[in-house]
Amino acid sequence: MTETLLEIDNLSVDYETARGDLKALRDISFDVNRGEIVGIVGESGCGKSTLISAILRLIAPNTRFRNGAIRFKGDDLLTRTEEQMRALRGGDISIVFQDPMQTHNPVITIGKQMVDIQHRVKISKAEKLATAARMLGVVGIPDPEARLKQYPHEFSGGMRQRIAIAMALMSEPDLLIADEPTTALDATLEVQIIERLKDLQRDFGCAILFISHHLGVIAELCDRVVVMYAGAVVESGTVREIFHNPKHPYTRRLIECDPGHIKTRARVLPTIPGEVPDLANLPEGCIFRERCDQAMARCAQVPPLTRLSEGHNAACWLNHAEEIA
Ligand code: SF4
User: Fold this and answer.
1) How many Å apart are CA 143 and CA 87, to the nearest integer?
2) Which domains does the chain possess?
3) How far is the CA of 109 from the centre of ligand 1 (A)?
4) Which of 1, 16, 199, 229 has the fewest other C-beta atoms within 10 Å?
């Protein structure tokens, strides 16, 4: 039976600024099931980073949770104490960040860093080093015992990211959050990291929340996809539904603009005209209206996120034929 691990329920988050409240997330709802890989995709400014910060409760002082809940294994993380959240981070929930160079302390050997992050485990230092070496082996670092004595700068970018993944998996988390972990890597290394993540997800059985603006990576790795635009979910569904039967114009434009989908030679890569709206001064109606080439009078009202088929939802009036007519 499918077990819900993470449940984002109607979450709204603002940043208080001198210009007024910046509405970073609005009524976000989606689930991540145990052992599942869910991708979050959208342009810069769509709310991906705020969502991760909110889940981990690593938030700026001006952040305000306005509404909703973030339930992990049934407990609302928004009601947890800071001490409880510290125990959760790096424990049941781990994260891999975008830049592998900034993940590691440059003046401490990889071995010492991997021993230090096992501070909660009551075993000897030799046993911790053995665990660290085993995990480096798991992520495909050759000669792991010797490499534990090396510093981060002695590894390539791809290897540093593998080490970051090894460190994130050392606590055997139920949920791994991967925040654009391949963005700083070239295409070959990207493929290697994706393959490794797939293997590890299968071997460790953890769920992965994979954040990316790269659709090809999402299609390759994920079971389900959540498409975000300007702080809201505009479409969600299985990878197959999203890539083969997208129902929101924003999703369609994202796919059209993905370099992997461009079949003909072009001097200039296609883009979506216009810009993400100012989140401190949101327009009326559909959030995508100013950039949408299918906008109509009905779009002056906010379209609800509507279930189109099992697990496939979209927020667009084009999918409400009876109300348009
Ligand atoms: Fe475009 Fe209207 Fe659909 Fe919004 S609701 S995406 S403006 S057609």
Assistant:
1) 32
2) 4-92+171-324 (3.40.50.300), 100-170 (no CATH)
3) 52
4) 1
Ligand 1: centre distance to CA 77 (Å): 34
Spacing, Cα 285 to ligand 1 middle (Å):
9
Q: Give yes or no for a contact between 139 and 173, defined as CB atoms under 8 angstroms apart.
A: no
The ligand 1 atom nearest the CA atom of 234: 6
Residue 248 has pLDDT above 80, yes or no: yes
Residue 324: what pLDDT? 44
- pLDDT, residue 140, reads 84
The 10s digit of each residue's pLDDT in 5-52 is: 999 999 999 999 999 999 999 999 999 999 999 999 988 888 988 999
**Cβ atoms 101, 110 nearer than 8 A:** no
For ligand 1, say whether the CB of 295 is within 6 Å of any of its atoms. yes
Output the DSSP codes for 166-218: HHHHTT--SEEEEESTTTTS-HHHHHHHHHHHHHHHHHH--EEEEEES-HHHH
Which residue has better confidence, 325 or 228? 228
Cβ–Cβ under 8 Å, residues 230 and 27: no
